[in-house]
Amino acid sequence: MVNDFCKKQLERLFDPADIKIDGNRKWDIHIHNPLVYRRAITEGNLGLGESYMDEWWDCDDLEEFFFRLLSSKADEKIVTPVNLIGKLIGKTVNLQHPSRAFTVGEKHYNTGNDLFETMLDKRMIYSCGYWKETNSLDEAQEKKLRLVFDKLQLKPGMTVLDIGCGWGGAARFAAEHYGVSVTAITVSTEQAKIAEEQCSGLPVTINVTDYRNVQDSFDRIYSIGMFEHVGHKNYRNYFEMAHKCLKPDGLTLLHTIGGNLSCSNVDPWISKYIFPNSMIPSASQITENYEGLFTLEDWHVFTYDYSLTLKAWHENFEKQWPALQLRYNEKFHRMWSYYLLSCSGAFRTHFLELWQILLSKNGLPGRTSIPR
């Protein structure tokens, strides 16, 4: 009886998105275990995601499914105990406290270098590419790096801080193509191993440390895909650190996922299985926390490019799955696909956004043309 009620509720939720249960279109879902109805209604995306991992339901086009679901604002129509508890915890507890700084590195970025090597571009850049006049993932990531470093006006001899350096691809590119010296930090020991190899022989130093421990002074500071792990209770600390470490005529660039609503927590499924303690900042949360420290020079939005990036990663992941499945099981396969494709759908509908924010310490002199 309860399950029948939950099925009707789910059908009512899907109707504005034109999604049918056991329909014949690629975005319709096919139910293998009717218990999914109760889990989806009572647990939201946590129940939907876990039941997908357990093979309780399938969909031929997950990306389109989530695009339609989020476009219809279905996420706003379900309030679950998990979400309410998550919001309460996020408001009262500093989930990104220094004592928890390395959790996301251990849980996500240390998953396996073999996984990321096969999924990402040749430089292993794990953030949104810039797909201007290209259909190649490698080129999109190089265009993104040039966009970042041209906005920062890098010049030979400058000292640069890379916060959240990943596998070192950006730091290496800056050192090789712009003649700068880079201090790069990460919270992942596995990332650091490859970053040190990638940057061998270049003026790049790799440190496994939290951003709050940085003390040196730099001409330029950037973070690409790291601010999502800072948390609303620490945004001011982040900008204070950048202000303290940036020279008087310095520039800093923030490349981050953004959200249209201020929040104190993240999706429960994403937090549990992909990015623990992560948090998507809103525009107001960013501006109010750099206020009095920095001057806004540019705010660049290229959200759809992240959908293209995620689909490219998923295509690579699927191509290499026959080799990867020797180490990873089918549950991981479904979890990783759910992650990549649900996020791609979220960016397509602008439920999530992608921002590059350029800030100066004391204002850029004269008229400045910001690269695009």
- Number of H/I helices: 15
> Helical residue percent?
40-55%
* Protein structure class: alpha/beta
Q: How would you write the strand order of the largest sheet?
A: 5-4-3-6-7-9-8
Order of helices and strands: HEHHEHHHHHEHEHEEHEHHEHHE
CATH level-two architecture of the largest domain: 3-Layer(aba) Sandwich
How many separate structural domains? 2
Mean pLDDT: 91
Report on this structure.
45% of the residues lie in helices and 16% in strands. The protein has 372 residues and is of the alpha/beta class. The chain has 2 domains: 77 residues, no CATH class; 260 residues, Vaccinia Virus protein VP39 (Rossmann fold), CATH 3.40.50.150. It has a 7-stranded mixed beta sheet. It has a two-stranded antiparallel ribbon with strand order 1-2. α1 crosses α2 and α14 packs antiparallel against α15. The longest helix has 21 residues. About 3% of the residues have low confidence.
In short:
It contains 15 helices and 9 strands. Strands 5-4-3-6-7-9-8 form a 7-stranded mixed sheet.
List keywords for this structure.
372 residues, 9 strands
Write the layout of secondary structure elements.
Elements: H1 2-14, E1 29-31, H2 36-43, H3 45-53, E2 57-59, H4 62-71, H5 81-92, H6 103-109, H7 113-119, H8 137-151, E3 159-163, H9 169-178, E4 181-186, H10 189-198, E5 204-208, E6 218-224, H11 235-245, E7 246-259, H12 268-273, H13 283-290, E8 295-301, H14 304-324, H15 330-348, E9 352-360
Parallel strand pairs: 3-4, 3-6, 4-5, 6-7
Antiparallel strand pairs: 1-2, 7-9, 8-9
Helix pairs in contact: 1-2, 2-3, 3-15, 4-15, 7-14, 11-13, 14-15
